[in-house]
Write a structure and sequence with these properties.
Elements lengths: L2 H21 L9 E8 L2 E2 L15 H15 L6 E3 L2 E9 L6 E7 L11 E6 L4 E8 L2 E6 L8 E5 L2
Length: 159
């Protein structure tokens, strides 16, 4: 894929994710953008182009094996989410995973972790939705679920 078509695809993915997020919910009075994410087995659906791969893990170890075998084909730079600095709510739903999940957004670089904001939490039982609020500053981040063992999805915040 050429750099130009790759950039166009990445922009389309990011615009689509943001459009879906804002269409599914309203912006709060404080100009907070809501990003909705759906967790199914071993993945965030929206972060993989809206494709639910149908994985049916019964334990965290199942996702470790699935992602070891499939992550390289599923995740690329095209999956990177691009946002502007500002206030966000990541609204995360566990749709069908039979064990508790969570959400963890942090700096991609261990060196930058003390300097960039992060948010995390658990308690996402099957059918539960939770909000994770954060004010993002410029930088490179990743988000994942350590309890569902999802890939580290990239998030770039640039002004």
């Amino acid at each position: 894929m050429s750099l130009l078509s790759r950039a166009a695809h990445t922009t389309a993915f990011s615009a689509g994710l943001l459009l879906a997020a804002s269409a599914g919910s309203a912006q709060a009075a404080e100009d907070v953008t809501i990003i909705e994410l759906t967790q199914t087995g071993c993945q965030f659906v929206e972060s993989e182009g809206g494709i639910d791969h149908g994985y049916m893990p019964t334990a965290k170890a199942d996702c470790e094996e699935i992602n070891t075998q499939t992550e390289a084909e599923r995740i690329s730079d095209d999956n990177t989410l691009h946002l502007k600095p500002g206030k966000y709510i990541f609204r995360v739903t566990n749709t069908d995973v039979p064990y508790m999940l969570g959400f963890y957004l942090r700096s991609e670089s261990v060196i930058d972790r003390p300097f960039l904001p992060s948010v995390s939490g658990g308690g996402l039982h099957e059918g539960v939705t939770q909000d994770y609020e954060i004010e993002l500053t410029e930088g490179e981040y990743v988000y994942s679920c350590p309890l569902n063992i999802t890939p580290d999805y990239k998030l770039v915040v640039e002004g």
